[in-house]
Amino acid sequence: MLLRPVIPSLILCGTLMGISSAFAQLSPAPPSQTFNPFGVDNPVLQRARNWARQAAERANGGLSRYRAEESMFGPASQSPFVENGDGSFTFRFLGGPPAAPPTIESIVTVNPDSANPMIRIDYNGPIQAQGATSPSRMAPVDPMPAPEPPNPNTW
């Protein structure tokens, strides 16, 4: 007779202990080593990366004839770029015919500032020896007129 009032208490206690241990296992992951205030990716760098890739696509005959390397499609922070210190970025990447090994090297400098956008193709040609034309050692090129930045509303 004494066990009847104790049994519901034991069941309730066991249930609560099971739930609390389940929540303890769902502790949040430790914060990453590098803090990114933009969340997923830096939107300014992402815009600059997209403009650089699109400039190379246009210069090489469009998407039916040219594809940039994979790093120009993933997270912008993992693309091959140099921050120039004046708000612009220089991207150096390979590309070529779709589903074929790369044959073209492109070096494109982009200023993604919406007040003064600039896209300049510094080099677009056969793949050069590694380090032969790193962006910091290139001779200045007269900027060509910047194409209009892509308008996502027209796609």
From TrEMBL:
The keyword Signal applies. Residues 142-155 have a biased composition (Pro residues). Residues 126-155 are annotated as: Disordered. This is Uncharacterized protein. Residues 1-24 form the signal peptide. Keywords: Signal.
